[in-house]
Task: inverse folding
């Protein structure tokens, strides 16, 4: 497993962690790959989107090149250690004429931290329709970057959000990094794209989209109840993640990420999201349930 090059940018780091090593010599009925963690002094736990993206890349390595991932359903089982490597085991469940199915597990210390099933399909034609892109959304160039919002705040988390992410994320509505929202609605929209160009590999773009999908998906739940990421004592963790890729996409072009939360109960919140390119094409959809726990007595909006 190669080390990250010196002076690597956050995007270089993303490409590095998605470049898995083949550990084919292992005695197992699974295809085995090894990938790095993403050491970060601000975040000792592995970022869930990273493990999702790596697992998708591992599974993609076991199918024929013309078959692209079109759906994935996964569960986060244990917190991961960002300073330790990750082993990925891929089971080849089925290879049909048009579809392939794979089960992938991510392991650390011999225990699974993520389990998912993904389906892959050869290009095909058929019926076409989609939910239209919201109208009247400001262009990403008119919105502040995370660096604009957070770069002047002398706090390690703010600095990490401002400069250490491989994606440019621009909130259409006021952000909730450190301030509670004024409007308590269970919807939001953000523009996202990588900080630089990506290789022309559709499997890599789809895995990278899974990576970024985990950043802001639970924010509609927080917005609805007047919470920010800086709410004292709040604990948030992704529980599961499902994703569907509908059309070819590029994560190095702007994508509008629209999300809403239909329900929160039992210390869990559910969010749905949709990704549109600038031409208005719906390229992917996502759903996630997360655990959200608050200290007793925390004021929230019902």
Result:
């Amino acid at each position: 497993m190669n080390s990250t090059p010196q002076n690597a940018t956050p995007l270089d780091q993303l490409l590095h962690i998605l470049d898995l090593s083949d550990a084919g010599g292992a005695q197992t009925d699974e295809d085995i790959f090894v990938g790095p963690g993403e050491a970060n002094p601000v975040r000792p736990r592995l970022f869930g989107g990273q493990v999702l993206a790596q697992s998708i890349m591992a599974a993609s390595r076991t199918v024929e090149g013309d078959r692209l991932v079109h759906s994935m359903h996964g569960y986060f089982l244990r917190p991961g250690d960002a300073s330790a490597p990750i082993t990925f085991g891929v089971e080849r469940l089925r290879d049909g004429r048009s579809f392939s199915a794979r089960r992938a597990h991510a392991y650390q210390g011999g225990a699974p931290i993520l389990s998912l099933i993904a389906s892959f399909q050869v290009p095909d034609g058929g019926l076409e329709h989609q939910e239209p892109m919201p109208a009247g959304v400001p262009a990403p160039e008119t919105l502040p970057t995370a660096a604009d919002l957070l770069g002047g705040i002398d706090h390690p988390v703010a600095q990490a959000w401002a400069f250490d992410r491989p994606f440019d994320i621009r909130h259409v509505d006021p952000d909730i990094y450190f301030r509670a929202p004024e409007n308590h609605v269970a919807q939001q929209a953000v523009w996202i794209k990588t900080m630089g160009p990506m290789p022309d590999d559709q499997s890599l773009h789809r895995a990278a989209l899974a990576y970024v999908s985990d950043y802001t998906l639970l924010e509609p739940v927080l917005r609805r109840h007047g919470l920010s990421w800086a709410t004292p004592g709040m604990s948030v963790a992704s529980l599961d993640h499902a994703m569907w890729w509908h059309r070819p996409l590029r994560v190095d072009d702007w994508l509008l990420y629209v999300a809403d939360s239909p329900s929160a109960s039992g210390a869990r919140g559910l969010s749905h999201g949709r990704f549109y390119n600038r031409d208005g094409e719906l390229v992917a959809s996502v759903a996630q349930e997360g655990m959200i726990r608050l200290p007793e007595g925390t004021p929230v909006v019902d």
Remarks:
- Residues 1-122 form a domain with the Thiol Ester Dehydrase; Chain A fold (CATH 3.10.129.10).
- The mean pLDDT is 93.
